[in-house]
Amino acid sequence: MILSWGKPTIVVAAVADTGAVTVGTFPTPVEDSSELSTEKGDKVEANIEGGAAEAVRYKDSKYTFKCSVRQGAGRTMPIAGTNGVVPGEYSVTLTPEDKRAPGFTMARAVCSYEDTYTAADGLIRVYTFDSLDNDGKDQVSITAGTTTSGS
To answer: How far is C-alpha 73 from the chain's CA centre?
Structure first.
């Protein structure tokens, strides 16, 4: 089995007015910082007398992708903003190290960032992409890997 782990390639593209914010391929992220997480949609129950559920449905889940980029002399951050706020909307595509493994695309997202510092890691910018509705389609699509080998 070919797994989607290892050093990813992350590409961000503008999908709405970005106010001239730079986008493209991100620098290699800080080790183990690339993470897609899901907040499961709220559960809605139609209860009847006695507390049993007559029907159950779920609201849409929400998705967040985070990755960290180390800041250093001569490196321009891939997306800039002001006080952690980044204008516009973006798509994010992650391709795993082994391109035969599946990756994902977040079709529409807003971006924010936090700057952190530790003596062990130096200055790091943590980017957060929060998914937006995609006209009823999946907010995050799992992309099939390639059929040829390569990493």
So the answer is: 26
